[in-house]
Design brief:
Elements (H helix, E strand, L loop, with lengths): L1 H19 L10 E3 L4 E5 L4 E3 L2 E4 L6 E8 L2 E7 L2 E2 L7 E4 L3 E4 L8 E8 L7 E11 L6 E3 L3 E3 L4 E6 L8 E6 L2 E2 L15 E4 L4 E4 L8 E9 L2 E4 L3 E6 L3 H38 L29
Parallel strand pairs: 2-11, 13-21
Antiparallel strand pairs: 1-4, 3-9, 5-6, 5-10, 6-7, 8-9, 10-11, 12-14, 14-18, 15-16, 15-19, 17-18, 19-20, 19-21
Membrane topology: Single-pass type I membrane protein
GO molecular function, one term: protein heterodimerization activity
Pfam family, one: Ig_3
Length: about 300
């Protein structure tokens, strides 16, 4: 046992001595690390992807960056220069970091840093970084009815499809935010609405007179927010708009019928006139003279022979 311990100590001492004399490289291979494997950036803002070399012996290692979009790799940094769609928007920062000056939504992808060191026993290492670029929402499309009737149900809609990640929606009534759960506040406890922050829907189960006013919707994510222009929603005791539309529709039908009847009558009159003008009375017989109706008797012509 004692002899074994002494032999192990001798071996360790020899290894240390060889390393100090330069017979064995101090680094057994290139080793990379990064500060963040998942990186978020705001659109049009700078972002740095870190590729830190923890251990290496090679003086001039080969450094490459690749962008992997939908499973297809392309060069970002190759042969000591930036390439691809980042050619004029990025640069390599020592030792191997890549800096994007103004990230865009098209930069969302996976990026792989590769370092090759020919003088190291482990002469290659790589590290994968996922970049997601946040996109500020654009002005959402809002659908707000102009008029509704008391006691009926209705829904206000809000939609935005440019922001990334997908935004959450908030609704405002007369410049005051509506709580997602009205029962959480005594001020809104009697209101019968519900908000879906994921889809942007604002539903009223039973509209009240107090629900009339100005509404607008806001779409918001970590990159920013945008809102649609305010719109007025009127609330009536009766469906005035519906009555008006029905009356207008009835009047339209009446006018159409009247015009149709008038046109039909003109056609009939014109056809009658043509019939009278084209009628030919039968010619009378040359041998008989019926005389006038007021003579009261039959008169023979000279051609009549007994």
């Amino acid at each position: 046992m004692i002899r074994g311990k002494m032999a192990m100590a001798t071996l360790v001492g020899c290894v240390v001595l060889y390393i100090s004399l330069g017979h064995i490289p101090s680094s057994l291979g290139v080793i990379l690390r990064t500060t963040d494997k998942i990186v978020w950036a705001n659109e049009f803002e700078p972002i740095e992807l870190t590729c830190l070399i923890e251990s290496i012996s090679t003086n001039n290692p080969r450094i490459e960056w690749k962008k992997i979009k939908n499973g297809v790799p392309s060069y970002v940094y190759f042969q000591n220069k930036v390439a691809g769609d980042l050619e004029n928007r990025a640069q390599l920062r020592e030792p191997a970091n890549i800096v994007i000056f103004n990230a865009t939504r098209s930069d969302t992808a996976e990026y792989r840093c590769e370092v090759a060191a020919i003088d190291d026993q482990r002469d290659f290492d790589e590290i994968l970084i996922s970049l997601a670029v946040r996109v500020k929402p654009v002005v959402p499309r809002c659908s707000i009815p102009e008029a509704v009737t008391v006691g009926t149900s209705t829904e206000l809609r809000c939609l935005e499809n440019e922001g990334f990640p997908a935004p959450l929606y908030r609704w405002f009534h007369n410049n005051e935010e509506l709580l997602q759960d009205p029962k959480s506040s005594q001020r809104f406890v009697n209101l019968s609405y519900s908000i879906n922050p994921d889809t942007g829907g604002l539903k009223f189960r039973r509209v009240r007179k107090e629900d009339a006013g100005e509404y607008y919707c806001q779409a918001k994510n970590d990159a920013g927010h945008a809102q649609c222009a305010p719109q007025i929603m009127e609330v009536y005791d009766v469906d005035i708009l519906g009555i008006f539309l029905k009356a207008a529709g009835g009047l339209t039908v009446f006018v159409c019928l009247a015009l149709s009847m008038y046109s039909l009558r003109r056609v009939c009159v014109q056809n009658k006139g043509h019939s009278e003008n084209n009628y030919n009375w039968p010619a009378q017989s040359e041998g008989v003279d019926y005389g006038d109706a007021d003579e009261g008797h039959f008169r023979h012509k000279s051609s009549f022979i007994i």
